[in-house]
Write a structure and sequence with these properties.
Blueprint: H1 3-14, E1 25-30, H2 33-42, H3 48-51, E2 54-60, H4 71-86, E3 90-95, H5 102-108, E4 116-124, H6 137-140
Antiparallel strand pairs: 1-2, 2-4, 3-4
The structure holds flavin mononucleotide (FMN).
């Protein structure tokens, strides 16, 4: 996958809003096949990581913002997914924080004790078009009061 496309995705993440503009995030770009396979083996729902050419591991840093270190990287991740989609790339968000394997992943990637792994994002060119669904607006939106 082209470096320029990955950079565009990372720039979209970089420009996400963050509380007090503390930007409590870091992104590890993993291309190495063995590392992707190890990540995939650790994650019970993470098979995409061995199949896709790039995995971006999203970290949150409580030292940069003790309250929003999880929200802000999540917002940045959504920006990243949208930038990927706009460039014709497919992605999958795989949750990591508070799982039994978060510590194993941290060790594998040299992540310091204080930081958290929010999620892993697999990225690649999709070889299929998938469908999905969402709850109806009428069910999830209220006006003026609930
Ligand atoms: C916090 C979070 C954790 C997720 N974890 C996984 C995961 O571990 N494995 C996976 O295949 N998809 C994961 N997903 C993707 C969701 O399953 C997916 O977004 C949802 O099923 C709706 O599908 P769509 O986004 O393709 O419309 C996760 C999404 C979020 C937001």
């Amino acid at each position: 996958m082209e470096d320029e496309k990955i950079t565009k995705c990372l720039e979209a993440a970089q420009w996400a809003p963050s509380a007090s503009n503390r930007q409590p995030w870091h992104f590890i770009v993993v291309r190495d096949e063995r590392t992707r396979k190890k990540l995939s083996d650790m994650h019970p729902y993470g098979r995409f990581m061995r199949e896709s050419p790039v995995v971006i591991v999203v970290l949150g840093d409580p030292k940069k913002h003790p309250k929003y270190y999880l929200y802000d990287p999540s917002i940045a991740t959504q920006n990243l997914l949208l930038a990927a989609h706009a460039q014709g790339l497919g992605t999958c968000w795989m949750g990591v924080i508070n799982t039994p394997f978060e510590e194993d992943m941290k060790r594998l990637l040299n992540v310091p004790e204080r930081m958290r792994i929010v999620c892993c994002i697999s990225m690649g060119y999709p070889d299929e078009t998938s469908t999905s669904d969402r709850r109806e607006l009428a069910e999830i939106v209220s006006y003026e009061k609930l």
